[in-house]
Amino acid sequence: MTTNSPATSDMAQRASAISKAGGFDAAIASGTIPKIIDVTLSEALVIGLLKQGVSKYLAIFGHGSTDLGEVLRIYEEAGVVRTFNCRNEVAMAHAATALRWQYGEIPAVVTSIGPGAMQAYAGALAAASNGVGVYHIYGDETTFGEGYNMQQVPKEEQGLFGQMTAILGRSYTLHTPEAIRDALRRGAMQVNHPYRAGPFFLLLPLNTQPQKLRLNLAAVPERPSLPAMAPADDDDLDVAAQQIAEAGSIVIKAGGGTRGHDEAVRRLADAAGAAVALSPGSTGVMPDAHPQNMHVAGSKGSISGNFATANAELVVVIGSRGVCQADCSGIGYKAAKRVININGDLNDATHYNHTLALTGDITAVADRLAAKLEAMSGKARAKKAKWLEACAAKKKEWSAYKKARFQAAPMADEVWQRPCLGQPAAIKVVADFAKKIGAAKLFDAGDVQANGFQIVEDDRTGDTFTETGASYMGFSASGLLASGIADKPRYTIAFTGDGSFMMNPQILIDGVEHGVKGTLVIFDNRRMAAITGLQMAQYGVGYKTNDSVAVDYVRLAGAVSGVNAVNGGFTTESLREALEAAHKHDGLSVIHVPVYAGANELGGLGAWGQWNVGNWCGDVQREWLEQEI
After folding, report:
1. Sorting pLDDT into bands at 50, 70 and 90, what band is 547?
2. Cα(379)–Cα(387) distance, rounded to whole angstroms?
């Protein structure tokens, strides 16, 4: 078997030339590497992704990725790329999603063929659901059809992994090495799409990876630079402004797409005199204390947020795809007669009936609409005075409701056999600490997430990342790894439940290995409390959502060398002390917090909307039938 070759030497020289020139484009411009080169498909892929700014790979190598792995080894030795080895493909996919979502860096996930690819593919659901663009590169069956390849899908059909991956995002099987340019062009558009970004899957057959092709480096696609789009004329904007001016009650539903468009949304809300109801993923788009911020609305929602959505006659939907939990399975806007929808995606912009669709970039459209309203000398806002007073009263009610739970004394818990903090009180302590030190917050699925987006008090987007798109258990702990990989890491606190943490506990090893400086807080109620609560609300009894096995999470985390494992105790004082101790550690800390689960209403924040699940379906669907928007 050949272990070294002139091709390897040529590869090393190219990698060195790129490094010495200070980057790919500089190397081409200076002529240190020729424009037309003979390379393997694996090297062509690494070069092509480098031209798009992709230099970080999260990898679990196997027999389906050895050739690509060798290219990455040579390019890393030259200082051109970095590869971060991980231990679980699902966790790795989450970390890549968080790296793009939180830090804006485009990574690539690399797995072998078969089970590893299947796990990474499952983890890619979080990226797809939240509109986060990342590359996924999987090994695939050989193209010669010589017989079954180990770990391929065992079925007499061609390209099955390509078919599966095309469902969740966009996919390209590099059956022919020369197709690399087309693959990279399509990939660049998918991961950088301004309105519908998501994962792009590159399938690399085992035998095409080492195949040679002639590549014109000047023709390799770049990362696209796309202009902001907006309506070509003012006709629809004039109609929208008139509808807003005439309406007596308006709510802006700020979806996850409003992240980063804070100023435009605030300007439009002020000019329109609109209450603003948030989605779990858009906390911070309005400052928490802003009088028009009604907080989260939806199936979980809040007193104030759900009041605003249920009673507004005009709804301005911005950057939302109308997820069932965001609009109570389509019946959240009970009094609405009309909808104005600002979105770049045509399907999302026309999700509701009686809609005036203003398609394009959120800031570009919202600013133009706000300018028209501002030119009306405050007439649009003046008509909404009584509406905003009613909303303010509901916000005051919601604040008092939360405060009672935040200040609740520890409650006697059946499992812990002693008084414990309620989950709202515990989460509030950690969220306040994060705000004090300027840390970012990552939230996991389940009860921690559901309480979390009702609790956080953000004044800008980018301080909280909550994976409500897929509600994927294990996301926050895994996503913490991104803070050990990012060029400019930010101290981050991951909020997770005991169940979610155990989905990907090996992330502790990866976190230490790759230098994470942050804290993982485990809120332990010894059950899937979100589902227990749903079962109790629907059927009056919990079923198979807990177990009898005690786990000492402090000992478990402390067994990993380099992890600072801390007991959070049973009071707000002990939890604050634990947070301070964790923050002082120069590395990864884990805090275990026992929390209450039970019937005491102060142990949770409740649900304020409707949802088409379980024995609620009949009522929700009957009401949906009567809806006109």
Report:
1. confident
2. 14
Give me 391's structure tokens: 């909303």
Q: What is the pLDDT of residue 24?
A: 82
Total-model pTM: 0.96
> In CATH, what number does 6-219 get?
3.40.50.970
Instruction: Kindly give, in sequence order, each residue whose CB lies less than 8 Å from that of residue 617, ignoring residues fewer than 6 positions away.
Output: none
Q: Residue 377: what pLDDT?
A: 80
Burial of 173 (0-12, 13-18, 19+ CB in 10 A): buried
| DSSP sequence for 447-473 | HHHHHHHHH---SSTTSEEE-TTT--T
Burial 77-108 (b: 16+ CB within 10 A, else e): ebebbebbebebbbbbbbbbbbbbbbbebbbb
CATH class for the domain made up of 415-597: alpha beta
**CATH topology agreement for domains 6-219 and 415-597:** yes
Strand partners, 413: 418
Q: Please answer whether residues 65 and 85 qualify as being in contact, where contact means their C-beta atoms are separated by less than 8 angstroms.
A: no
Q: Phi and psi of 343, rounded to 5°?
A: -165, 145
What percentage of the chain carries pLDDT values higher than 90?
89
Structure confidence by residue, pLDDT tens digits, 560-598: 999 999 999 999 999 999 999 999 999 999 999 999 999
Q: What is the DSSP letter of 135?
A: E
The predicted pLDDT at position 623 comes to 95
pLDDT digits (tens, 9 = 90+) for 242-260: 999 999 999 999 999 999 9
Domain boundaries, the chain: 6-219, 235-398, 415-597
Q: For the domain covering 235-398, report its CATH number.
A: 3.40.50.1220
The backbone torsions φ and ψ at residue 355, rounded to the nearest 5 degrees and listed phi first, read -105, 135
Q: How many CB atoms lie within 10 A of CB 418?
A: 11
pLDDT tens, residue by residue, 433-457: 999 999 999 999 989 999 999 999 9
Question: Nearest to residue 348, comparing CAs of 231, 235, 195, 189?
Answer: 195
Q: Which residues contact 425 (CB under 8 A, 6 or more apart)?
A: 405, 406, 407, 408, 572
